[in-house]
Structures are given as C-alpha cells and as structure tokens.
C-alpha cells in the first residue's frame, strides 16, 4: 500500500455525482415540472391587472415558458399585476442556466467529497494495520485543497450570479429615474420602476426574453443607454458566461493572491464544473462570439439601415446603430426585440434562423 497511486484512493467516477448519469435527465425534468407547477399555482391564486383572467392553460404555459426561459407567450405581459411579474421573475431566475448549474455543482461537490472521504478513511484504516501512512497523508492534503477550492468556486458562482443581476437592476433603475422618456413609458403603462428593472435584468441574464411591456423593447428603441446596459447582461448570462466567470476568478486571484484561486485557474478541468473553461478555450469563445456579432451587424445594417417599414422612425444614426447591435446580439440569445420583425427583410430572417 505504500506506493499505491493516488488515483486508486479516489472514488470511481460513477460515485462522484449524487445520481447516476442515466437519472440526470429525470432529476432535471422533475425539477422543472415541480417549479412550473408551483409557478402556475402562484399565478392562479393572484389577481391580474385586468378584470378578465387568462385561462388555466395559458397561465400554466406562461409558467413553463418562464421556467424553461423560452419566452414563448400567449398572454400579454401588461395583463399581469406587479406581484405576478415578480413571480415570473422568480421562475426565470430558478430556471436560468447559471442557477441550475450552480445547484448541480453544489450537490455534486457534496456527494463527491463525501465519497472520497469515505475512501480515504478506508485506506487509512488498512495502512494503519500495515504501519504505513505517507500516501494517505498526501491524499488527505490533496483532498483538503480540492475541497476548499470547490467550495470557493461554488461561492464565486453564486456571487457572480447575484452580483451581475443586482448591478444590472441598479443601473436600469437609475437610468429610468434619470431619463424622462423611459420613465414616461413605464408610467403610461402603470409598471413599477423597480419591478421593471429587476424583471428585465433577470430575464435578459437568463436569456429568457420576457419584458413587462407588450411591445417588448420596441418602446425603448431610442433609449440607447438602456440597451447598452442590457447588452452585457445578455452575454454574461449566455455564451460568454464561462469567460465572465474566469475573469472574476482571475481578478480575485490578482487582488487576494490566495493559492486557492490559482489552483482553480490551473485545474479548471478537475473542478467538475462544465462552465469553467481554460484560458485558451475562453479566448476561442470570445473570438467566435465577436465574429458572429460583427458578421450579423454588418449584414443587418447593410440591408435594414434604410428600412422603409418605419422601424427607425425618429432615431438618429447613433440610436440606429445601438438598436441594431442590440437586435443582432439578442437574435442568438434572449429573443428580445427593438424592431418589428415582421417588416424586416426575409434575408435577415434567414440570418437570424441560422444564428439561432
């Protein structure tokens, strides 16, 4: 036992997750069905803003759409009361990829180290009988470092999730208070400023695409500042989430100098979190995403800059450019829209379909 390789002291891969791989689909399905049912019940028991309430099927569809962050809607969003909008916000948050992956990582981490601790304990008992302990001590030290880093990574993921959404909500709320047009739009529709800020941020971050207004973001197509606030949310909660997470870890390592941060960066593949990518893969991801965005933006501006359907009425060139950038980024992610899709060219629709 003295020269026993460390990997023999670890639990088999099949024991490192709380459930066998074959049951992962069922566990996810159960989670989403349960949350959808709770969401439907909450929407059913609360009152809408209008006298006529949507049918049960439409409410359930809305709940499922929010949890699955698909943003398919059969009910106008302005029908829902302020409290119902907060319910939908919660459903989107609980169904978002970042939150679901964070929960899965925490569960996997707990079961993984519980199993590995049991294996180390068994080996230590055997080695005590043979009078050797060096390999066990190395394994215990390695397990301790790995466990500490996994715990730190879990906290970082939660901090990233909460920090991004809180900052986004704050910036939108301040923008609404400062910019008269945005404030007037919400006042005319009777939508609470804070609710709109939180709802829009979480919906955009989770790549759902719901917006409390019936027109989605068309009502704000000339509010370039608001669009620029939402664009990072689209990317940081979507395909650039691994990049954002790695940048946060790199910044923490630079500021604190703790060895745990450096361990996470150097052993990304061993941390057991699929969204934690190496620096090289993050670089490739950034280049790919930027390439798609630039390609779409060039095509979109070339074909729609002088659109005769009225999608740019009242907008100056800067506002048109920001709105175009927002539109092409959202075509691959949330589905939020600042233009009437029905009046843009078929060639652009084909581009959107390909990018989706």
Would you mind describing this structure in some detail?
With 356 residues, this protein is mainly alpha-helical. The chain is built from 13 helices and no strands.
Number of domains: 2
Number of strands: 0
Low-confidence stretches: 1-19, 133-140
- Rg over CA atoms: 24 Å
Choose one word for the global shape: globular
Count of alpha and pi helical runs = 13
How are the SSEs ordered, and which strands pair?
Elements: H1 24-45, H2 56-67, H3 82-95, H4 97-130, H5 134-178, H6 180-189, H7 193-205, H8 224-236, H9 241-256, H10 259-266, H11 279-304, H12 317-331, H13 346-355
Helix pairs in contact: 1-2, 1-3, 2-3, 3-7, 4-5, 5-6, 5-7, 5-8, 5-10, 7-8, 8-12, 9-10, 11-12, 11-13
Keywords: Ion transport, Membrane, Transmembrane, Transmembrane helix, Transport
Subcellular location: Membrane
Organism: Cucumis melo var. makuwa
Brief descriptors of the model:
single chain; 356 residues; mainly alpha; 2 domains; 13 helices; 0% strand; transmembrane; membrane
Concise synopsis of the structure shown:
With 356 residues, this protein is mostly helical. The protein is built from 13 helices and no strands.
